[in-house]
Amino acid sequence: MSKFYKIVAGPLSMVIIGCGVFAFGGCSGPAARQPEAAQTRLEYPPEVPAGYKGETERRWARIYGNHLYDLIGERPLAWLPVGILEHHGEHLPWSLDGQKAYLVCLRLSEKLNGVVLPVSLLAGVHGDRRPEQSEQEYRDFNKKVGDFMFTEDYFRRFMLETYDGLANIGFKVIVAYTGHYPEIQTQIVRETAEQYSATGRATVIPFWEPLACGAGDHGAKWESSIWEALAPGGVRMKAIVDEETGRSGYYRGQEIRSQISREFGEKALDMVENYLTQKIDEAFAGQETNKH
């Protein structure tokens, strides 16, 4: 051990301390050779949205003991954010879809109450293998783009069983918020919400941002601006690049850097809040009507 300390105290330590290569990206080594975007080290995704006060703990994973039942008694509203780990260019995190939904749910819970479930990042689909696709073609495609191969049946069962568990605990209204919204995903969320609501055990509100905003995208103006509003600095603006052409500021053939702003994201979030406030109030009012 004494020999080890002598070595560390010698000239080599001066190189390590002066360089800070591994932890801080100084001097030489792999970090120095990476582009600017790859060296960025930000604490994203954040645990809470910008401006969050958290005066009442509503994050289920952080709630202690019977406080959960106090919150259910206050307003039996469950926020269920779901998404998937999916590529969104070099400027956004792979967890964007689910984390976006989670942060919006947490933000709205401060005004609308309820309990926010942990985000489910393995709750999204792109569609089952098509008949004309071989299994190997299907696997190769998903490997190339970095997607999981969850089946539609798996996702459908996941949503229905989650609704049922929440209703059994005592929740009466569930916001099923998917931040991932290809057609097959939204179809399943809508169909399972309608199916479970028909049981009368709870009312499930299916939601994805275009329902409130009238538009949406994949990693471009809408999603990036919403993310920037929720997590200021979370969009790596300098890293935006079209992966087909290499053109800076473009993504999927469109110039998006100049279109992304926190202000636009806040406007979108206002629309989401207005939409969900109305839907939640209607759901609770409908349940009161059914009692009589």
What does this protein look like?
- The chain is α/β, with parallel strands linked by helices and 292 residues long.
- The protein has one domain (46-283): Rossmann fold, CATH 3.40.50.10310.
- It is 49% helix and 8% strand.
- It has helices at residues 2-9, 11-19, 21-24, 30-33, 36-39, 67-74, 96-112, 135-145, 152-169, 183-197, 210-213, 221-230, 262-291, and strands at residues 77-82, 115-116, 173-178, 203-207, 250-251, 254-255.
- The strands form 2 sheets. Strands 2-1-3-4 form a 4-stranded parallel beta sheet, with helices on both faces.
- α12 packs across α13 (262-291).
- It is globular and about 60 Å long.
- The relative contact order is 0.13.
- The model is unreliable at 1-37 (pLDDT under 50).
